[in-house]
Amino acid sequence: MRRRALEVLTSLAPAALELGEAFRAAGHELALVGGPVRDAFLGRTSADLDFTTSATPDQTQALLATWGDTHWDIGRAFGTIGAARQRGGEHTIVEVTTYRTDAYDASSRKPEVVFGDTLEGDLSRRDFTVNSMAVRLPELTFVDPFDGLADLARGTLRTPVAARQSFDDDPLRMMRGARFVAQLGFTLDDAARAAIEDMHERITIVSAERVRDELVKLLMSTRPRRGLEVLVDTGLADHVLPELPALRLEIDEHHRHKDVYQHSLQVLEQAIALETGPTGAVPGPDLVLRLAALLHDVGKPATRRFEDEGGVSFHHHEMVGAKLVARRLRALRFDKDTVRAVARLTELHLRFHGYGDRSWTDSAVRRYVTDAGPLLERLHRLTRSDSTTRNRRKAARLSAAYDDLEVRIAVLREHEELAAIRPDLDGAQIMSILGIGPGPVVGAAYAFLLELRMERGPLPEEAARAALVEWWDARPHEGAPPQ
């Protein structure tokens, strides 16, 4: 690991090493910290470089203004100044933060920022020992006061100070623990896990935006299932994503239906496997698909019914689930587009059911495509992933049915513009044919023609005109359209 790290660190952008020289010349300490150092020992190069310094924010800003092409101070309240520099083909982005010692007030959602005076003190306030290693610049001296390298070798997440103190100082570190389990494949040590189990309610003091950002990083990682299991098993999910642990209640004592919690985690893994490369239909990692796969069944707890004949039903759980998903994502301050997309996929995830048992008309296929709209490729993957049956024959039958549906969509797409189905006549033509001005009747006529388009496919203009006139004649109105 040391050899790997040395190779990575000696290949650091020359501009970053030059920055270290500039800080030393000005009488300040500068050290590379956190993720970039950890990743160097894992043989990975970080695109963005995080530094800590003995310089004040004002001193740092003055140095970065000289070093970089541009700089920003959006993080000044936390002692952080950023800068970027382009030299030839090398683009370097850095963030430099003054040594800090932070703590949360018990009644506040924001940490109290207190600047420190030593590198070791700054490292002690970091979340885990694997992120509490540093490299002093420009001399490339390795600093590891909490034995983070040994924990890195063991794949263990341990706090540099007592776990309860660390999580009390910044409760978001509990979320980060779950995130690093997902990102790195590491394991929380016993003290950290026990502290989270005892203190999980403390996460409620953290802002929804910060919780959301950690959840997104977890979901976009390579092993989100492991991180989600940590959230649920420690009780954190009860506060940040309560709909997920609620699914554990859905297996009944007679085992008449599958464990919906485990099913949802499996659907997530299967959906991830169906994400495509950068030029594919759903480039991974795709946040919308992953959220929909994880949350598509959250309506089941509220809709579960035990039937007289011994079965279990969840009627309309997709509609209930869509509302719950939208409510939860809004509470976590997700953007409107993400909220709408995930809720819509939740609402549509059962639409395919029954396709293999009865023949869909072309009209039904058109509706499926039109209702999905730009979410169609994600819906394809969500629907395929939702099959977690161990019955190979049933799984093969479902897969073949969806293959058939995709073929039919492709065939119809060759002949029709399925992605943008419109009536055969536009609003101006409707008004001209009916001799009317703008108003609700035009909207009603447009809706009629759209329904006709769904049922019969594209029509010649004369046939559409005749159908519109027939519709008009059947309505109660004064006057008649021109011939």
UniProtKB/TrEMBL annotation:
GO terms for molecular function: CCA tRNA nucleotidyltransferase activity; metal ion binding; nucleotide binding; tRNA binding. The keyword Plastid does not apply. Pfam families: HD, PolyA_pol, PolyA_pol_RNAbd. Its EC number is 2.7.7.72. Signal peptide: none annotated. It comes from the Bacteria. One of its GO terms (biological process) is tRNA processing. The keyword Cytoplasm does not apply. Its cofactor is Mg(2+). Keywords: Magnesium, Metal-binding, Nucleotide-binding, Nucleotidyltransferase, Transferase, tRNA processing. Residues 256-417 form the HD/PDEase domain. InterPro entries: Bact_CCA-adding_enz_type3_sf (IPR050264), HD/PDEase_dom (IPR003607), HD_domain (IPR006674), HDIG_dom (IPR006675), NT_sf (IPR043519), PolA_pol_head_dom (IPR002646), PolyA_RNA-bd (IPR032828), tRNA_adenylyltransferase (IPR014065). NCBIfam families: HDIG (TIGR00277), tRNA_CCA_actino (TIGR02692). This is CCA tRNA nucleotidyltransferase. It comes from Pengzhenrongella sicca.
